[in-house]
Amino acid sequence: MPGQYSQFVPGFELRSANDNNRIYLFHHLLGEGAFGQVWRCTDLSSETEVALKVVDCNAVGNESLKGIEKEIELTAKARSAMGKLCPKFYEAFRVDLPDPLVPSGRSFVKYLIMSMEFIDGVPLDKLIEFSLLNETVCAYVVYNILLALKDLHEKHIIHRDIKAANIMIGKSGRVVLCDFGVSRLLEKEAQALTFTGTPFWMAPEVIISYSLSQKSGGSGQVPGGMRAGYDCRADIWSLGVTAVEACLGHPPHADKFARMPHMVYLTIVKDPPPTMDMAKYTGTVLKGRSAGCVRFSDTYRDFLGHCFQKCPDDRMTASQLLKHEWITEMKEYEKDVVKDRLISNVNTYLLWEARQGEDVEESSEDDDDVAQEMAIGG
């Protein structure tokens, strides 16, 4: 990470620009990316654990900064719409700190700070890297994301980046939809035009809309009466991809285009919708199991079929999918039992993660035992 973040280290204390009594104590780095760093911190005024996003305003540029400020606004709106299905948003402020690259201390760097709820758990993509979810546990996760999408879509908010990496599973089994950095608030009946999302999870109309918009010079109007644009139903396609990802370990087409993800656009638009026809996965190995050993229920396949309608008008809404048999079957199976299985998966993963780095001879054997236990429990 660029040197401008080098002053943020464990033990560093940062005072809020909104409240002089609020001081954040930095513990450890949770992650970093193009837009800055995310730290696990303690708000010493309340002894609350928080996730603090730190962004160098000068390094990211004006357009990116506008996008981050939009994320702040939409995260707050999403929290009001979704409740516990979205992380709490505490505050945002800007602060000038001495530039660590200029020893004189006469130069300052402006940082944007976002304080949000710390979710103690595991990102779903990390969880399924360790052990795939079975259908019932997957249905529980999807059920919670559908509840979140129902609330978002009723507020005319498109998430635009639904995928396992943006879903946190807490130690208590809480499912949380995160990262509203590319979300969009639409006016009623309006449609988005921008090309946003992650390739394998992208709905066909998002790709088509970008192409048509380019041909129209950005106006959205193209010859023949066609109009570029997409709406909340694009999230439903991405949710279907995520449901596949949770059970297979990767989204559709990832095995073919793993090294060239942007080549998948034409396939998504031109090819028939994805299915769980395991003949297409012959030779694929799913976490040590041959694909031929994996069977998926008809209700799961039918659920995916409603998500993967190429025409958005034919796609079910979040409200409709909440009534689908695949979801209601899970609820009838006793939701708390399924939730307990998910909690077991999370705790087993965290146990395995804690063991990493321990120089113990039997660690490899122990990890195999843990993975087997998780596969049975999940």
**SS element count, helices:** 12
- Going by CATH, the architecture of the largest domain would be Orthogonal Bundle
Strand order of the largest sheet: 1-2-3-4-6-5
Q: How many structural units, i.e. domains?
A: 2
CATH topology of the largest domain: Transferase(Phosphotransferase), domain 1
Q: How does the helix and strand content classify structurally?
A: alpha+beta
**What general outline do the C-alpha atoms trace?**
globular
Alpha-carbon distance between the two ends: 37 Å
Question: What's the short version?
Answer:
By secondary structure, this protein is an alpha+beta fold. It has helices at 57-82, 124-130, 135-154, 204-215, 233-248, 254-257, 264-270, 298-307, 318-321, 325-332, 335-355, 363-377; strands spanning 13-15, 23-33, 36-43, 48-56, 89-98, 108-117, 121-123, 157-158, 167-170, 175-177, 184-185, 285-286, 289-290. The strands form four sheets. Strands 1-2-3-4-6-5 form a six-stranded antiparallel β-sheet, covered by helices on one side.
Offer a few descriptive terms.
about 375 residues, alpha+beta, Phosphorylase Kinase, domain 1, Transferase(Phosphotransferase), domain 1, 2 domains, six-stranded antiparallel sheet, three-stranded antiparallel sheet, 12 helices, 13 strands, globular
Describe the structure.
It is a single chain. The protein has 378 residues and is an alpha+beta fold. It is built from 12 helices and 13 strands. Mean pLDDT is 80; it is low at 185-195, 219-227, 278-293, 359-364 and 373-378. It is globular and about 65 Å long. It folds into 2 domains: 3-117, Phosphorylase Kinase, domain 1, CATH 3.30.200; 121-337, Transferase(Phosphotransferase) domain 1 (Transferase(Phosphotransferase), domain 1), CATH 1.10.510. A hairpin with a 4-residue loop joins strand 3 (36-43) and strand 4 (48-56). Helix 3 (135-154) packs across helix 10 and helix 5 (233-248) packs antiparallel against helix 8 (298-307). The strands form 4 sheets. A 6-stranded antiparallel beta sheet has the order 1-2-3-4-6-5, covered by helices on one side. It is 40% helix and 18% strand. The longest helix is centred in the first third of the chain and has 26 residues, at 57-82.
